[in-house]
Amino acid sequence: EPEVTQTPSHQVTQMGQEVILRCVPISNHLYFYWYRQILGQKVEFLVSFYNNEISEKSEIFDDQFSVERPDGSNFTLKIRSTKLEDSAMYFCASSRENEKLFFGSGTQLSVL
Amino acid sequence: AQTVTQSQPEMSVQEAETVTLSCTYDTSESNYYLFWYKQPPSRQMILVIRQEAYKQQNATENRFSVNFQKAAKSFSLKISDSQLGDTAMYFCAFMTRNNNDMRFGAGTRLTVKP
Q1: If residue A94 lies in a helix (H) or strand (E), which one and from where to where?
Q2: Structure confidence by residue, pLDDT tens digits, A64-98
Q3: In Å, what is the CA distance from A43 to each residue of A77, B47, B90?
Q4: How close B45 gets to chain A, by Cα (Å)?
Q5: Residue pair A23/A32 in contact by the 8 Å Cβ criterion
Q6: Residues of chain A contacting B46 with CB distance shorter than 8 Å
Q7: Residue B38 has what DSSP assignment?
Q8: What is the pLDDT of residues B78-107, one digit of tens each?
Q9: A6 with A92: CB under 8 angstroms?
């Protein structure tokens, strides 16, 4: 079965540093998403992306966050200046229209 | 805004028995999708079952079935013949047809005991 691939699986960074989390969605999918999950808490929606633009974003997705689809295969989440509270598991997902989301295995981000 | 509520933070069940996880949601939409996702200790998100709101028939997937009550905005998951591998967090999720963003409940931690 096709998979959503996320790299790296673990990322450790210093507070204030920029990080880029990378995702390769399933090739024929059109909708792309980022979610995060702070340890022990619910999965929270960050942003959805379609047709090369953000289609929806949550209140969590502030000016420190940005997404990009730099080429035909990658979908990235950038956090410009990381804070301690950004430590979480970040999930990328993709889907075709009105179908289930396929999730990647996540990137565990630790901000020290 | 859509909200998803899972009122059972933790549940346990004996192996081979049946357990039901509750989920309610709030929306003004008429067309939407509902999902149950399983998150084992590996923290992967695995789709368990999917229900389309316009379908009256409850979805089933092997040992997993749902009780979808549209008027009550309720979407419970029944796991029959529970197995040790069913131990995981279970998240109920809602997605509108238009917005294509999925919102999750807080999750229910299910433990299957031998």
Answers
A1: strand A88-95
A2: 999 999 887 899 999 999 999 999 999 999 988 76
A3: 16, 14, 11
A4: 6
A5: yes
A6: 103
A7: E
A8: 999 999 999 999 999 998 876 667 889 999
A9: yes
